[in-house]
Design a protein that fits this description.
By secondary structure, the chain is mainly alpha-helical. Helix content is about 50%, strand content about 10%. It has a two-stranded parallel ribbon.
Amino acid sequence: MHPAFPSPDDDDAEDVAWGLTTGAALWKQGERYDAIVWLKRAVDAAAQAGADAVKFQTFKPERLVSRGTPTAAYQASNCGASDQLEMLRALELPDSAYPELAKRCEARGIEFMSTPFDAESA
């Protein structure tokens, strides 16, 4: 196990949440490589916790919202973005991340899934 990863607990739900939260925070800071490492850690924790599958979301922000669409108050307070497009761009994974995550899922014996939110992402 990578030295930066926590030791798994008997209940790995916290490790899954930690992996996802850390990955999202790193992504938001622009540290894409490290974010993918933590998303893979979430896959590992989910597999160890006995999950059958992990599900991501695939989308192109420009296909979902118009530029200048304001964020809701809870979105602005949680992510700091002033509009929906900016918020979604900060959350979008690159197409290259999905094969990496799928490969990790396969290695861990867990199903990889991703829900497309637009025709281009399907």
